[in-house]
Specification:
- The protein is about 75% helix and about 0% strand.
- By secondary structure, it is an all-alpha fold.
- It folds into 3 domains: about 190 residues, MFS general substrate transporter like domains (Growth Hormone, Chain: A), CATH 1.20.1250.20; about 55 residues; about 220 residues, Growth Hormone, Chain: A.
- Helix 3 runs parallel beside helix 7, helix 5 runs antiparallel to helix 6 and helix 11 packs parallel to helix 15.
- It is globular and about 70 Å long.
- The two termini are about 25 Å apart.
Length: about 500
């Protein structure tokens, strides 16, 4: 965008509290539609993945890239997206993010090959990383009255919380009654509504001329994360001892170490290390990284188990996950309103990790004759409760006590940790699961349906078992790092919201 077009904006970044935007509740609707589109995309494609794999003919080893390409691009570019919104204006960044997301969704829906689908999913993540921080910023500057802002953030948070469940159900309906491609095409409708509303209702904001983009930081963190994800994925096809596997893993570690060093030197770092160094905050970021890794894995492998091993339809699969989402929301509410204010995070977060680990171990017992009511539903509810006990305190404490100038980057970092955890966890779990299936098939007839079905169960059980290891590690880390007692609250702290 040219400097001239930016400078023609006539509205200040922080409108006067005496004159809030006249159509602010309609603006909330526009932002809410955009937020719902981004949140839906984290789950809606999962239900459609078995159908997409059958249609495009990609392997079990490659299927994780459809999930990982989006999560990795979104997570690694979120911090950069916030800087771009400051530099080029929130309205412009919001609209570009919407239009780009819709365009990438159209390409992904029309994909004629696996490679085309993965590239388009990565583009969705890129434009989502522009869209999400801009939407949060617009919400902040639109609602300047404290009471109205609290209501607006509550609506926004409710959309974020319910979006995953809506995505699972909508993904099932669209896949079963139309086609898997409509789980991607539906974004065009959401984006069209939000773009029209954004053009008509949003006002331009002046450019923050003090903001600069940390290009070296963005390249280092993006390259480091890609190296780790690709290295874990490569192990499935080239073995752990392959130079391609350990070479990418080593390069990822080196680049992330360089990113950490650079953040101490950069004038405007993407992620100021002071945000991470408080014990409770650091523990919370690690907890969110681990839950992202474990939760994404559950959605991916349980989707395949329900559809391919038990023959569930896409709609029935989406419905099967809803009790887990409901339990997660119950656990989140219980932890944030009752447990944390009375007990603090040290007993609550480890309890959540322990419940999630137990649920993963429980899931390893699933077989071809398992029933939903007695074998699948109980561990799903336990997993949801456990995740809720971790995620709500994690999100709250990861941003508690940050200074005003760090509130935006702290919010973005929360979501970055979840998405990055999901990317790494999905890559590693898919590699381990696929290797387990390959090992089982060694010396057996791969064309025998019973042998194939059992190899699938071996793969899924391996994934659940390693997810349990993730959560067990999270239990130990949270016991060690979290401080005892109820965290002190600062009534004057900067408001922080989560995407």
């Amino acid at each position: 965008m040219s400097k001239t077009s930016v400078d023609t904006a006539t509205v200040s970044v922080l409108p006067s509290a005496d004159a809030p935007p006249r159509h602010r509740w309609w603006i909330l609707t526009v932002i809410g539609v955009a937020q719902l589109m981004v949140v839906l995309d984290a789950t809606i494609v999962n239900i459609a993945l078995p159908s997409a794999q059958k249609d495009l003919g990609f392997s079990d080893g490659d299927r994780q890239w459809v999930v990982t390409a989006y999560a990795l691009a979104f997570g690694s570019l979120l911090l950069l997206g916030g800087r771009i919104a400051d530099l080029f204006g929130r309205k412009m960044t919001f609209l570009v993010g919407l239009i780009g997301f819709a365009g990438a969704s159209a390409v992904a829906g029309a994909a004629s090959s696996f490679e085309m689908l993965v590239v388009a999913r990565a583009a969705q993540g890129l434009f989502g990383a522009l869209l999400a921080p801009a939407a949060l910023s617009l919400l902040t500057v639109t609602f300047t009255d404290a009471k109205e802002r609290a209501k607006a953030f509550a609506v926004y948070g409710a959309i974020a919380g319910a979006g995953g469940g809506i995505g699972l159900l909508l993904g099932g309906i669209l896949t079963e009654y139309l086609d898997w491609r409509w789980t991607l095409y539906v974004n065009i409708a959401f984006a069209a509504v939000a773009v029209i509303g954004g053009v008509l209702l949003l006002k331009g904001t002046t450019r923050d001329k003090t903001s600069t983009i940390d290009i070296p930081g963005a390249l280092l963190v993006g390259g480091g994360l890609f190296g780790l994800v690709y290295g874990f994925s490569n192990a499935e096809s080239h073995d752990w001892s392959s130079p391609q596997t350990w070479g990418f893993l080593a390069a990822g570690v080196v680049l992330l170490a360089a990113f950490t060093w650079w953040q101490t030197r950069a004038a405007h770092p993407l992620l100021p290390l002071r945000v991470l160094l408080d014990r409770n905050r650091g523990a919370s970021f690690l907890a969110l990284l681990i839950t992202g890794a474990g939760m994404f894995g559950v959605f991916l492998f349980l989707t395949y188990y329900l559809q391919q091993s038990l023959g569930y339809t896409p709609v029935k699969t989406g419905l099967a996950f809803l009790p887990m989402i409901a339990a997660l929301m119950l656990g989140s509410t219980l932890s944030s309103t009752v447990l944390i204010p009375r007990l603090g995070p040290k007993p609550v977060v480890p309890l959540g990790m322990g419940l999630a680990a137990a649920a993963m171990v429980w899931l390893t017992a699933l077989d071809l004759n398992s029933s939903f009511a007695t074998d699948i539903l109980p561990p799903l509810v336990v997993a949801g409760l456990g995740l809720g006990l971790v995620m709500a305190p994690g999100m709250s404490l990861a941003t508690a006590g940050v200074s005003v100038e760090d509130s935006g980057v702290a919010s973005a970092a929360v979501n970055t940790m979840q998405q990055v955890g999901g990317s790494l966890g999905t890559a590693l779990l898919n590699t381990l699961a696929t290797s387990a299936a390959t090992d089982y098939l060694a010396g057996k007839d791969p064309k025998d349906p019973a042998v194939l079905a059992q190899s699938g169960l071996e793969a899924y059980s391996t994934a659940y078992g390693w997810s349990a290891v993730f959560f067990a590690a999270g239990l130990v880390i949270s016991v060690i790092l979290y401080r005892r007692g109820v965290p002190a609250t600062d009534p004057d702290a900067a408001p922080v919201v989560h995407m």
